[in-house]
Amino acid sequence: MYCKNCGKLIAEDGKFCAECGKPIETQKKPGTPIADALILTLKPKFVALPFLISRIPLQIFFTIWCAGFLGGLTNLAFVFIGKAFGMDNTFGLLPFVFWGIAAFIGIPIISLIVTKGTYNNSFYRFYETKLEYSENFLTKELKTINYKRIIEVYLRKGIFQQPYGLGTIFLSTASSNGISDAGITIRNIPNSDQYYHKIKELIEAAQQ
Questions:
Q1: CA angle, corner 127, sides to 121 and 155, nearest 5?
Q2: Is residue 44 part of a domain?
Q3: pTM across the whole model
Q4: Fewer CB within 10 Å, N side or C side of the chain?
């Protein structure tokens, strides 16, 4: 390696030229990967009330199903046990009411805990050429996708998101045959308009 100032031969690990004292500018060797700079990090915001309201139809369905199915099985089991021991173990509507209340209260609580935990452990890191993200709760996984695989970016604001200033950003990806069959959904992002344009510009710049 030679000094760019005076042309004197210097050692490979030298910091200064022994002849003129100029600091040595180190250059990366060909093929050395360039560090991908972190541009943006997003985390979804969990809001309990819209989540619970949106689950009401599903909650009603599971409440009726659990009351009918599990209540019927429980009542039938008590009848068989009663006959085996010579007792009258018929409880009428009590098993149906019990399982109905348990489902109506328990299912939303479990769903709330799991969803909130998933939101708290989710993050999306946008680099210059790739997206690194995790959307897990009980397990830990880290995924990476190159911007060249993303074929569409769009924003949606649901009726329950708008009062809280939230939005969902979708990143559609292409399969091996070029047809969009999957994607990444970044839910409940504050200032979603601003981040939507930023992400779109970032991806378009990387694809040029």
A1: 70
A2: no
A3: 0.68
A4: C
